[in-house]
Amino acid sequence: MSFITIAGEVQGYSVDVCGEVVKDLAAQLSIPKLEIRYVTITPQTRIPLMASGTVDIVCGNTAKTISRLGQVGFSMPIFVDATRVAVALDAADINSLGDLAGKSVGVSQGALVEKVLRQRLQDENIAGVELALLPNEGEGLMALGTGRIDAFISNTSVIAAELEKSRYKDQLRVTGDNLQLQLGQAAIMLPRGDADLELAVNTTLARLFRSGEMDELFDKWFSPVGISMDPINQAAFKLGAVAE
């Protein structure tokens, strides 16, 4: 949900959401312009950097989990992440796991989706699926764009961000409904125990949900890559519209 363009600009759904948070914080603190300093993080470094105070807010694709709540804080969810399939523009739709039979399917090696997919294919007796393990999502879309695999599966937010910056963007599309291999609450990561900051962030998020601006941001970043609002997120966005 956040990425760096070739020109070095930081963009994405969660970046826009955090921009609204910063704007509201500046107004609350009577600061004409609150400076934003972006710090590049990885899944391995984001929690240590937050715990050490190096970063104040993480505006990326971070799932809210019980184990992480023991180390950091989170806002209310800004998105419910599911599982999507990317295919070539002229490929048939993939709307269920059964549609993967006889195809070469790429996943990021070591990602949770790999483990869950293997188990589901076994549980549902779906044969003939050749799993191709790729180093990361960018390599996965490259393999798809060059015809080395038939489909690539990852989290909705990851596929959206990677497609947006991929050189193969115009040759690929996201197909069908989410496969619901796994669901996760994506939220803004915050310092653990900072109740004032958590309240400020959630106040902005509730405003965005109530006004419909969050729906507009969703359409802005997900619609161009073929991802439409699903019933799960429709419900989550309504629940996020907490009254003042």
Helix content: 25-40%
The percentage of residues in β strands lies in 15-25%
Write the CATH architecture name of the largest domain.
Answer: 3-Layer(aba) Sandwich
Structural class: alpha+beta
Largest sheet: 5 strands, mixed
Query: Low-confidence stretches at least 5 residues in length (pLDDT < 50)?
Result: none
Please provide the count of β strands. 10
Order of helices and strands: EEHHEHEEEHEHEHEEHHH
Brief description of this entry?
By secondary structure, the chain is an alpha+beta fold. The protein has helices spanning 13-28, 46-51, 66-69, 112-123, 137-145, 156-165, 195-211, 213-222, 231-240; strands spanning 3-4, 10-11, 58-63, 73-81, 83-88, 104-108, 130-134, 151-155, 172-175, 184-190. It has 2 domains: 3-81 and 183-240, 3-Layer(aba) Sandwich (D-Maltodextrin-Binding Protein, domain 2); 83-175, D-Maltodextrin-Binding Protein, domain 2 (3-Layer(aba) Sandwich), CATH 3.40.190.
Distinctive features:
2 domains, alpha+beta, three-stranded antiparallel β-sheet, 10 strands, D-Maltodextrin-Binding Protein, domain 2, single chain, five-stranded mixed β-sheet, 244 residues
Explain how this protein is built.
This protein is elongated. The two termini are 27 Å apart. It has two domains: 3-81 and 183-240, D-Maltodextrin-Binding Protein, domain 2 (3-Layer(aba) Sandwich); 83-175, 3-Layer(aba) Sandwich (D-Maltodextrin-Binding Protein, domain 2). The chain is an alpha+beta fold. The strands form three sheets. A five-stranded mixed beta sheet has the order 7-6-8-5-9. Strands 3-10-4 form a three-stranded antiparallel beta sheet. Strands 1-2 form a two-stranded antiparallel sheet. The protein has helices at 13-28, 46-51, 66-69, 112-123, 137-145, 156-165, 195-211, 213-222, 231-240; strands at 3-4, 10-11, 58-63, 73-81, 83-88, 104-108, 130-134, 151-155, 172-175, 184-190. The longest helix has 17 residues, at 195-211.
